[in-house]
Amino acid sequence: KDNRSHFWELYGQVAEEHDSDFLERSHSDMKNILLISGLFSATITSFIVAMESILSPDPSDTTNALLTQLVHIGLGNLTAAGSVPADPAPTWSPTVPAATIQMVAYASLSMSLLAAFGAILGKQW
Predict the structure, then answer these.
(1) Is the CB of residue 62 less than 8 Å from the CB of residue 84?
(2) Which of 30, 43, 53, 77 could form a disulfide with 119 if both were Cys (CB 3.0 to 4.6 A apart)?
């Protein structure tokens, strides 16, 4: 054998070792990313569900407004009954901090799911 064939044989062995180490590390890293993004997604989803109630009007406000109207009608005070809005929901709007927090939560959930999707694609490749 000449020196060139010995060089390429040695190069092939070193490259194979390097590639197998790289693939093993990458596989392990993607496995960890999947685990962490899954746990984070589950956690942030529970917070999103818990915060969902602050983005809608309180149903007891509507009930109280309707009961107030019924009491006014029952007492014969029709002018006062017409002055109270039957549904206070159209005048309600969520606070800016609540909407901002919810937007950030949805953005972080989207990024976490995107990272998990990327890791799955990487593992299958």
Answers:
(1) no
(2) 30
How many other CB atoms are there within 10 angstroms of residue 117's CB atom? 12
- Provide the residue count of the chain: 125
Residue 54, number of CB atoms within 10 A of its CB: 14
DSSP character string of 79-102: HHHHHS-S--GGG----HHHHHHH
- Give me the pLDDT at residue 88, please: 58
Reply yes or no on whether the pLDDT at 52 is more than 60: yes
Give yes or no for a contact between 62 and 87, defined as CB atoms under 8 angstroms apart.
yes
Dist. CA 6–CA 17, nearest whole Å: 17
pLDDT at 78: 65
Torsion of CA 27, 32, 34, 37, to 10 degrees: -150
In whole angstroms, give the CA distance from residue 75 to residue 69: 10
Which pLDDT belongs to residue 49? Answer: 92
